[in-house]
Design brief:
The structure is a homodimer. Chain A is mainly beta. Chain A contains 1 helix and 14 strands; from the N terminus they run E-E-E-E-E-E-E-E-E-E-E-E-E-E-H.
Chain lengths: ~130, ~130
């Protein structure tokens, strides 16, 4: 038995698809799910003004801000500012979004639970009106 | 339903206990386990030469190097160098250690599985002879 190392060549960077993200977003894999750990991790970087669409996670998600300032909002609540080093937990089924502030890029490391192979359910985009409601 | 935010005041920094670590080590909580996510996260920083004792994790552990260069070794294998941005998975029960290189401090973010409330079983210290065998 040995450990597994995820070197750079196993950590492809992809653009966040326009269907699910507003603005420029890059996603870099950190580690995948495995037979024991039903959660995966990635760095997700948002240029200023960029954000996810509204979405839910069937097994929840944590993120920790590693650079810049994050904005996050759960459905019906206010937009919250999350600083570097701080973390957030979205429980299963909670409708929410997260992204950069209008003027500062943001990177967070996400740890996303997986249920029956599924980690996210995408909903509608976050409108400019919703995003500016702070 | 709302998200949970772990602000700085919920992320205490503690020294890695001398019983389980060699050299100066700081542990800062990022997020705890919860009812859904049976894994927790922390930043762990090692001064040059510092390392964990040998140990195992009942539900495995991932880490990603966020600063510096990590050394890691599984029992019976070589010491491996892990660079910033790279990640490692230690499966349940694998005897291993990790820490800084002799000349460079290292910080990694760990994501540690929990089984029946337990996340680590500590073993003997990594001797200077074992640590210098690279």
């Amino acid at each position: 038995m040995a450990h597994t190392t995820y070197k750079e060549d196993s950590q492809p960077t992809i653009d966040g698809p326009a269907e699910y993200f507003t603005g420029k977003v890059r996603v870099q894999s950190v580690f995948p799910t495995n037979e024991t750990a039903h959660y995966s991790s990635a760095y997700v970087t948002f240029e200023p003004g960029a954000r996810t669409a509204w979405h839910t996670h069937p097994a929840g998600q944590h993120f920790v801000v590693t650079d810049g300032i994050a904005w996050a909002q759960s459905w019906g609540g206010p937009i919250e500012v999350i600083n570097k080093g701080e973390a957030v937990w979205f429980p299963p089924g909670l409708k929410h979004w997260h992204g950069a502030s209008p003027d500062t890029a943001m990177t967070h490391l996400v740890v996303t639970g997986s249920l029956d192979g599924k980690s996210v359910d995408w909903l509608e985009k976050v409108s400019d009106t919703q995003y500016s409601d702070r």
